[in-house]
Amino acid sequence: MYIAVIGITALALLLVYGYCLNFFLKKEYYSISIPGCGKNGTVKRTKVPGSSHMEQKPVRILLLADLHGASFGKENGRLLSHVRKTNPDLICIAGDMTVKDGRGAKIGLALCRELLTVCPVYYAVGNHEIQMPCYEEYCSELRKMGVSLLDNECREHFIYGRKLVVYGWNTPRYYFHKFWQRREPPLEELREQLGAPDEGAYRILLAHNPEYFRAYHAWGADLVFSGHVHGGIARLPFLGGVIDPALRLFPQYDAGMYQEGSTAMVVSRGLGTHHIRLRFFNIPEISVIDLQ
Known about the structure:
This protein is α/β, with parallel strands linked by helices and about 290 residues long. It has 6 helices and 14 strands. β2, α2 and β3 (about 90-95) form a beta-alpha-beta unit. The chain is globular and about 70 Å long.
């Protein structure tokens, strides 16, 4: 009897803990060397004439993903406070700021409007945005307010004597599959949709689904920003994320930074949740990346 009571109480406390974690925020910091900037760097392609005295200043990028219409405080006041205190040079959004039925679209737009008062915002959509009935209207509003919405497009960004090019891949729906279904985007498809990577710049690719990291590396990305996996929903010591949106156990890319050759990838645990509104040992993440 007592064992049953203890077990039920422990389960109830665990569920409460998992639910309450939705309302916390944690900043994760990553440091990445731009080729030519590090001690051993030899590649000079990112250097831009002028402003040589500023070349060593890190470029600070904030990565946000998977808000799913969540709100941290009134009008996302707590989230915006964290963003402003971080003092980023640019903000990258790696998709799924809304829910596929359109819920959260107003929250996503309101947040982006405030983010633009901090610094430039680059946004590539995820699988939820592309399924929204109001998708075209949502994209139109983002562009009107000044967000650089990257629909298989790129934008140049010059900062501290360096040239960055930010690309956004609008991942087709058939690459968001379930269970045993697996597809790998051919290099030719990425080249057709994104074009050839700019050889004279440091190339940042916003791609919602991290599963295709090897393809992003083969295409020519220097740095990839992704989300989608929500940190694996629950996280276990030494094992990491437990399950991904494709319902596969222990996904290879769940959260944190990964390396494939010369390409780095940062995968955000995300900010919100969808379907399973629990986060076990998995605090919502604001990713802060310093390009040294």
